[in-house]
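SEQUENCE-TO-STRUCTURE ENTRY
===========================
What this section holds: a protein sequence and its matching fold, both as plain text.
Tokens: labelled as protein backbone structure tokens, with as many entries as the chain has residues.
Question of interest: how does this chain fold, as expressed in backbone structure tokens?
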Amino acid sequence: MDYPTVEQLIAEAPGVISKSTLGNLKQVYNLAKYRAASCSLGKMADNLLFIGQGIDDMVDEMAYAFQKGRIESSDYDAYIKKIESFQWGTVPAMVKDALSQKCGCKLVPSK
């Protein structure tokens, strides 16, 4: 399954999400990717928490806009699905790829 890149997520964001929130998400995602690729796992974990905070901020801004009638429910729902795909697909895939390809970690499937 193809998951959205951070650039696609930002490009398709509704106008009710601030540019600073989107910029922060891109910055912490790219920093987490760099930390994973350089095997700085503790710092990568910190950056992953900030990705989660960035996603929370996006959802909060959309919820506020929805409450004020500035975004349609269908647009809200569609973008939430993109966010979920990014959060539960793109981010874990980035970490997995970096750990296995860059750090030489052997990943064992969970039981």
Notes: The two ends are 22 Å apart (CA to CA). The chain is about 75% helix and 0% strand.
